[in-house]
Amino acid sequence: MALKQSEIDRHDRSTHLPAVRDSARRKAVANDAKSDANSRAASDLPSRPPLKWAGGKRWLLPHLSSIWQSHSFRRYVEPFCGGLAVPLGLRPANALLNDINQHLINFYTQLQRGLELEIAMKNDEQSFYRRRTRFNQLIKKGKSQSAEAAQLFYYLNRTGFNGLCRFNQSGEFNVPFGTHRSITYATTFAPFRAALAHWKFTSADFSALEIDDDDFIYADPPYDVEFTTYSTGGFSWEDQVRTAESLAAHRGPVILSNQATARIVKLYKKLGFRIAYLAGPRRISCTGDRTAAKEVLAAKGLN
Ligand SMILES: C[S@@+](CC[C@H](N)C(=O)[O-])C[C@H]1O[C@@H](n2cnc3c(N)ncnc32)[C@H](O)[C@@H]1O
What we know:
By secondary structure, the protein is α/β, with parallel strands linked by helices. The chain has 2 domains: about 5-100 and about 190-300, Vaccinia Virus protein VP39 (Rossmann fold), CATH 3.40.50; about 115-185, Adenine-specific Methyltransferase, Domain 2 (Adenine-specific Methyltransferase, domain 2, Orthogonal Bundle), CATH 1.10.1020. It has 11 helices and 7 strands. It has a 7-stranded mixed beta sheet with strand order 3-2-1-4-5-7-6, with helices on both faces. Strand 4, helix 10 and strand 5 (about 255-260) form a beta-alpha-beta unit. The model is unreliable at about 1-20 (pLDDT under 50). The structure holds S-adenosylmethionine.
């Protein structure tokens, strides 16, 4: 059965409340206290995530927040959390956020510890390549999980080409300078420290996550690129299938977003998910075409 657009938009708290397990009730009470602290922090929160991140889903927030409202007593789990656009928009009291990119997760855990910017933020080519070299030295010396590495990661993300995060075969960050006309760098991360305080961050393959039956999962894996076995991001069709199968095995609510390729739609339909289609943000293809990509939201266990 297809999930209608109106159904996504119309999730009503009173009529769609799911049967709540005891553990979820206990969590809900514990969450109330965190929630107060979080909403205080959230009121100071900048509307944009701190990093630029490929595939950021800020544009999806209006759709997701109406669904989340009926589930906000649950723990929010995002196995492919990337730039945090969704949790920073939904502001769950309790969250488990994971990404395989350990530099990204180091940045977030350093934000939780009160990361301060001690290096000068300069949008200049020479500074960029000097800092890139320093970042790679830290990786080589086994110091990639430090506060200095987190500051450099922020600087390289904002100053490098398109916010890309790419490493060569020797594990060196190799994104070139971005030639942005001007960049607004953060001067403080204090509002993010407060907002992230009660969230748990991990860096592993999504299959290693310890998920509870009553968790709410929003999964946004790398896009499926049709007609290839291996996508450029290193996330293969096999990875898409094991993602779908592990999401299908979850007993609580799950939402998946991905590019609406025929094989993704077929896979999630076969696993019993309800499907809705959305027009994604406009992207420029290699031919200069600016048409919006068709995206899919696949849902299961929402009520
Ligand atoms: C489309 S992005 C997520 C974007 C995020 N929803 C946002 O709004 O910024 C996909 C993320 O999956 C991560 N990833 C790729 N393979 C993974 C794996 N096997 N396990 C966990 N995370 C993975 C990538 O590092 C990337 O940050």
